[in-house]
Amino acid sequence: MKLAILSRNAKLYSTRRLIEAATERGHEVRVIDTLRAYMNIASHKPSIHYKGEELEGFDAVIPRIGASITFYGTAVLRQFEMMGVFPLNESVAISRSRDKLRSLQLLARKGVGLPVTGFAHSPDDIPDLISMVGGAPLVIKLLEGTQGIGVVLCETEKAAESVLEAFMGLKANIMVQEYIREAGGADIRCLVVGDKVIAAMKRQAKPGEFRSNLHRGGSASLIKISPEERMTAVRAAKVMGLNVAGVDILRSNHGPVVMEVNSSPGLEGIEATTGKDVAGLIIDYIEKTARPNQTRTRGKG
């Protein structure tokens, strides 16, 4: 097969591993810098150009689109879809998962467990918003934040009011969530491929920190997940319409709750922690499922 990987940097661990896994299986791979691809949007023959040449003949495309380039990256991916190329994750599914509020609303509609979450626009509604999620301590999140940036734990209601007023004053979009104290600063990253959790790890925040992201100094360890956690992760990925997803789950007193569904999960931490060939399993999935003109948006909007 001829595979395209949309990635800004071929040397990144995840991109490199996908290249290795595909090459080992005899596939031809080309890394395309997403921001250097440009499009001819024509109804009779949509095309993508890259550094002066027209791209054609690809069987599948693997999007590794960073959050900061979601708009342009999904436009490029959509163009591949219009050309009949099989996308590992579809453009609509990526856009859906990148919108934190929209993704939580979709998960809630399908009955997937979530932390109590509030969203408001007016500073006048702050006191009721705080009580809606059970009061302090609570977590405030910027909707545009990634890798733990723009996430604040407020220990008191006074602190929460101050932070909310500051964010609202800056016209930032924020949501407020209950703080799951019993999780103890740990979450579970489940790597879903197709309809299976192929690997899972526990991420533990460093002392004095509540964000467990490995980028923020969190540590990772192997974990055995329950059938309920496994089912929750697979359902969350399915609701988003993602074939490959990193689903972040917290263990709460009322069962597993989904924090986030990531459409471009990093492979380094989970491969190192579990010893599994995650990149290889992703390529295997493409081999089994890739067909031309197969793009369909699963689920609604």
From TrEMBL:
The keyword ATP-binding applies. Its EC number is 6.3.2.-. InterPro entries: ATP-grasp, ATP-grasp_RimK-type, ATP_grasp_subdomain_1, RimK, Rimk_N, Rp_bS6_RimK/Lys_biosynth_LsyX. Mg(2+) 1 binds at D248, E260. Binds 2 magnesium or manganese ions per subunit. GO terms for molecular function: ATP binding; metal ion binding; ribosomal S6-glutamic acid ligase activity. Keywords: ATP-binding, Ligase, Magnesium, Manganese, Metal-binding, Nucleotide-binding, Protein biosynthesis, Ribonucleoprotein, Ribosomal protein. ATP binds at K141, E178, Y179, D187, R211, S212, N213. Mn(2+) 1 binds at D248, E260. Mg(2+) 2 binds at E260, N262. Its cofactor is Mn(2+); Mg(2+). GO terms for cellular component: cytoplasm; ribosome. GO terms for biological process: SOS response; translation. SUPFAM superfamilies: Glutathione synthetase ATP-binding domain-like (SSF56059). Mn(2+) 2 binds at E260, N262. PROSITE patterns: ATP_GRASP (PS50975). It comes from the Bacteria. In the C-terminal section; belongs to the RimK family. HAMAP family: RimK. This is Probable alpha-L-glutamate ligase. The gene is rimK.
